[in-house]
Task: structure prediction
Amino acid sequence: MLRLLLFSLLAATALAALAAWRRALTRGGLILAWALAVVIGYCGGLTGFLALAATFLFTIAAGKLSGKKRERAEKALHAKTGARDAMQIFCNVFTGALALVLFKLTGYLGFLWAYGGAMAASLADSMASELGVLSKRPPRDILTWKPVQAGLSGGVTAFGFAMSAIGAALVAACFAGCTRAASGSFLPAFLDVTAAGFFAALCDSVLGSGVQVKFRCPECGALTEKPKHCGVPGTPETGVRFMTNDAVNLCNNLLGALAALGLYALHH
Ligand SMILES: [Zn+2]
Result:
């Protein structure tokens, strides 16, 4: 027990140090991420920690790959850019940490699956949005099928879907490899978690198109996720006011966790 606590403290500190060095998080984001990583390491052991580390590292790598092109799309469209803040960390990591606490308390493997599903959903969405902007074809809105600007929530491309599937599979492979000792075999865990992550990212796009709040800029006429554009406040045009990108990400993680939990219950 003491060894597990020491492990989780050291592992969380190493990950937080890396995040600080990469300037990936704001100060508040860093503190919350460290605390959640301790919980994840303590309740989920090496499996929990490695799935978290994989999600974090691949998210950074994807951001690096898309580089300038994504930055431009982000600056023009997104409400939040640059380092991730505490709210973004909460919406992307809390669900997984909660699943692991439930796993620690009950010992039910379905909650471990739920953790895998939440992390897979997180990376699937990050890879799709970070790398999707590199698509040669312009995205279309997932619900209306009208062409939209690259980077706008709800816009999808075949390339983005592929990136999303790869993201889910990367976390699932790490997760299933580590849980083999507990679950007996690699493939069922891998398939369940990949499917849950991909499904959640798909729902993320539907929510991003259907209910996420978007504003029309009175200066330049652009449809954006920024409440303020060109220095003036925009008028809400579509979506529900409280459904920000953070809220959509929280739903994404919850759906990934529930889907993985459901698939586990179905198979056991
Ligand atoms: Zn504008």
